[in-house]
Task: structure prediction
Amino acid sequence: MPMDAREIETLIKAALPDAKVDIRDLAGDGDHYAATVISESFRGKSRVQQHQIVYQSLKGQMGGMLHALALQTGVPEA
Result:
């Protein structure tokens, strides 16, 4: 059973409460999403570290209930 966008957002915000999260269903199948996550927690971290934080927040759902997630991360602009 696929994950819905709200569930993905809830998991990310549980790990990054200050995050601004935008989830888009790319194929309309509940299996392929794009996410933009902006959080102050990412400041000073590499893009790889930022992505690892987001993937960890999904609690092992990548590759299972969540097939594909195109991810963009960043810090808030001043």
